[in-house]
Structures
1.
Amino acid sequence: MRWRRSTPGNMLPGFSEERVLRAGRDYVGSAFPNPDRVGCPGRQRLEVFARQPSAPGENDVDHLMTCSACFVEYHAIRKAWKRRKVATIGALVAAALVLIVSSGVVISRRHPEATSNAPPKRPVEMAQEQVRNALIDLRPFERSRGESANNARGHPSPPVLDRANLLVTILLPVGSPQGPYVFQLLDSTGSSQVETSCNAAIKDYITTAVTPFDLRAVSPGRFTLTVRHAGEVASASYTVEVR
């Protein structure tokens, strides 16, 4: 779904419109559990909803707003689709820049007086900041409610993530159910730096979630990773380090 950013003329006392909309989204994402997916349109239909420029039909919107599983899956599909569009545009821009630079090199060779000793820049290397794979294995950590499980004595060091555009594979603790999950990266003040959602599935007997984490704008340090199943209200917390 499309969320409008808050503007100076769009405020509630003490709350921005963006925070209100986020709270509403979190509520819909957990208030209407549908573990049996009764009446759900299916992933293929949700992908059609997420990629079309216009809003879904009234009946489809009613279902999305009263089915937490479909709502979370639709939101994850749409965010991933938007990231792919941005990546495609970036690749096209990179190709255009390479063509421009190549043309400039040819011209400089034809006119030696305009040449310089500095090597030509390679913008394709900057524009092609591809998504990097990362892994967070939460199985060694106990699930905890309201505090970081990594702070317990005897636990291994917290998982480490690079400040990059990541596609993170998260191995959830033993016994974690399948289904939609919401992940948040909170700083020391409790402010959300990254929020993403996806469906987790059991692979090789491990409940596994694969979700994007763009950490390029996040400062180095320790953060709290909250993990919440869409059918639950409480979340488990873990400490992660960003370098």
Note: Residues 32-128 form one domain.
2.
Amino acid sequence: MLRFNTHTRLLEPDEHYYPMQDVKEPNLFREIFCFNEIPKAPFNRRLTPMQPPEEIWITDTTFRDGQQARPPYTAEQTLHLYDLLHRLGGPKGIIRASEFFLYSKTHKESVRKCLERGYRFPEVTGWIRATKNDFKLVKEMGLEETGILTSASDYHIFYKLGMTRRQAADQYKSVVAAALDEGIRVRCHLEDATRADFYGFVVPFVQELMAMAKEAKIPIKIRVCDTMGFGIPYPGAAMPRCVAGLIYGLIHFADVPSEWLEWHGHNDFFKVLVNAATAWLYGCCAANGTLLGIGERTGNPPIEALVVEYASIRGTTDGMDLTALTEIADYYEKEIGYHIPDNYPLLGKHCNVTAAGIHADGMSKHPEIYSAFDTVALMNRAPGVMITQSSGLAGIALWINMRNEKAGKDQISKSHPALKKIKKRIDAEYARGRVTAISDEEMEAYCRQFLPDVF
């Protein structure tokens, strides 16, 4: 039967039937994943149409996956970060949901505190293993949605679970059915989807889930998990590593609505952000991430990066409060005790700091020359200059003018005679073997000595 697809404006087959291939031996895709070699990137040159959904959004797993890579957050820390996520997401709730562990006393206290806030966004959701005992925790906490681990690759089904594909699917579906019976929305996490047999297991399993959702009249969301970071964003990449192909296939062959699809990636091969953006562009509404990208092993898409990517793709921040990002960075550094690398994009101490003299000279003439955007207006974060042996007179002049908020005719020129004396002191430091930058305190001391009328 044909139907007119209002999204593509084309007549398309209404049904695709892919039976579960309950194989006796696991399909490990050994020609791609050889284990004693770097995984190979196969191409079939089949181009998937780019079809971004009407809306895209961000979901958070800071308090689930993010806690698998660091000491657990306290309930108070969780609540503060949750408040900042709410602010960052803005009135439209661009950060749509946040998922939580439900196992320990601290987990449960954190969930209760966040629920008491009464925010619509991010919605507090759970995460459990595919067992009915774990499902009791969701009921106990009174949550309306929970994620369920539904491992998809034969690596997990055969070697971790010790099951056949059919047995695993039936086990997963029994827990999904229990949730639906209680009116709870389910989010099935297709663990290791980028090493899974897409047409032999993923599509038929998801088709069965969609049938369950239709009967229960309750959404069953599908989280596509790139657990080992194998996803490839390149056009013409072959399955199962092709991000575009995975999203397209779930929409067109398994009939999953875009708003029920979510991408969850890891950064093992440095593609965590581009893979999430690719999922958005090819029809997935939700991209899952963590604050600062902190997550198991190499981490997840950084929420701060997803925020920037959202604004870049959509052409608007849609009311997101980017000043919350600066407060998030400060909170991690000062209260949680997590050091953000100085050169970390957007939030690192030196992300908008220049050190080279030629850059400083350009900054002093026009800030847009070496600033990607107005960090003061968008993030409440002023650009800066770091004084090193490469800063030159231009860098020193820029440091002084920024420190004293001088503009226009009031600026100290790099030809000012006092600057040569300051530079001579700095050059002497490096001549003696110094390798670190000149601190702000040292610069202030030099300025008080040689520019007493300014300092």
Note: The chain is about 40% helix and 10% strand.
